[in-house]
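Hi team, as promised in this morning's meeting, here are the two structures we talked about. I've kept the exact order from the run log so nobody has to guess. The first one is mostly here for context; it's the second one we should focus on when we meet again. Sequence first, then the predicted structure tokens.
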Amino acid sequence: MYVSKDLSLKLKRIDNFEIRIFDNKKKENVEYILKNSKYDIYMVINEYDYFIWNCLDGTMTIQDIHYTFYERFNRVSVSYVENIINNFCEKGLIENYECDPKKFLPKKKVLEIRFPIKHIANFFEIVYYKVAHLFFNKIWMLIAILISVTGLLLYFYIKDKPPLVDKKLTSIVILYFAVMIPVFFHELSHALFCYHYNRKVKEAGIMIYMFMPVLYVNTSDIWMADRKHRIIVSLVGPLCDFLTGSVCSILFFFFYAQSYSIVFYQAAVTSYMRMVFNLNPLMKWDGYYCLMDLMGIYNLKERSSKFIFHDIVPKLKRGIKFTREEYYMLIYGTLSLVYVMYFLGQLIILDLQFFIKFDISHLNQRAILNLLFLLPIIFMPIKRMAKIIRNRSNVDSKLNIKKT
């Protein structure tokens, strides 16, 4: 611990911060999102942490905070108060405590490698304030709805559709660039709506995700907006996919006889597919963040996994009733686990079907990519389970609050 050795130390919180209630719905356990505006670091805190945060005004010693905490909540937990203060220090939220900025860098993920593009966020800001803000009104919204519905109807109206892709390399390359069209507009829509609600885009660029290059936009600053705006920013991506797919469907309908119409068809199909995939709440895509805001449970996936693999057995042994939030986490965590197992099972079956008829001459790119994709996904749950088992004996500091 950094600060527990000197109880006479007077710590002062930084001035450059933002804080707001995470969930606007009424419930007992209110959570707040605290932002270090200098480093764009976010921290979720509960009512106890919020009280401690307000005590860090530079006039109270750590010992005073312990006493005030006891007076306010009639609870004694020296380790809890000190742990929270240390967490504030580690996030760079304490003014008179030196922090290492390297700690603020996001942890590298196995299947994600990001390459930020300099000044691209400024480009999005210029696009919004110079042009895009003119389209944020009801008239253009109705036009977008009309185009979306018309394009979808035309897509189903066309009976004789070409194959999405054939075995030619040029067709695969064209398909890839056709996929990039909805991806670009998808990410652009997230960025523009983020600026529309007076938040900013931290960074944007190219990311290698699942061994495939894709575009990404970091809109984490939208966490400081209210729940309604967060949901809209999450939903606008899939809705933009819907609109892009419909525009491409209309173009495909009118230029059906042209050889280049295949590009419009590919872009339409991939846009509609992206819309469906992104609305899937069981993966950490746009639909997941919408569900998280609707339920009012921050870090829903991680907390659901922790509840299922770490907390549920002790609660059952003690006969402790689940809260409504815990029931939600149990249902979501179970569905998410079943979905991942089903997804992996389907992938394994496809590969087994290939390898049953295995011939070294048939070893194509699809088999290699599937193996590269499958191995890390299998490895990550094993690594996660090992970490949970290793830390099982550690008592969560937030459970150490005892009534006197």
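And here is the second protein, the one for discussion:
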Amino acid sequence: MKLHMWREQTTYRVTRVSAFDQLKPQTFDGSGKDAMRDFRSPPERLSDMKRFIFVGFEKSCYNMAKFDSDPERRMAVILEQDPSVQLWMKPGPNQFRIYDEDNAPYQPDFVVETRTEKLIIETKRASEMTNAQVIRKADAAALWCHIANRANGDGAGIKQWSYLLVPETAVLPNATVGGLMATHTRLVDADLLSRYSLQDESQFSSNEIA
């Protein structure tokens, strides 16, 4: 049946809602007596990644985290060692209200604040970079950043949002956040901008989106 399905061009509809909630406690379930592990130390079998609770962070908003893959863990190492990074977090469910064009919620891998920027970062296998679902979520997140920047303005001291879609092959020990931004920032193009409508734009304020 899927062979006969197609997708019509969709319009993103953006409404005035709070985009981010206050930080809420996160709970983790680790299996086994050795479930706690320093984030710099990968498990012997990478397939066991989801079993562990990782600790030892200094810049994370939470003192514990779980990772779905080793590229996610390696990204956390990059964020911790990069001097430009001030804070980072792995958002919990529903902390960011980002929805793709199918109205499916999107929970990004990382949210990062540097000295000059605010970033949403997603890591993916190289083979997934052109996956249709990945692209839809990337478009939604890039559009969210664009709208957040419009709402917040560009005055002195205001940090702009950017969305990074990073292949696992770029998550290397010598990588920096600045280098990843230079090569993997996803920009909003004219086609995407033409496919969204912003409701009640005149009443849109920065504290409602960032």
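Starting points for discussion:
Strands lie at 12-14, 36-38, 53-55, 64-65, 85-89, 110-114, 117-124, 160-167, 196-198.
Residues 1-9, 15-19, 200-210 have pLDDT under 50 and may be disordered.
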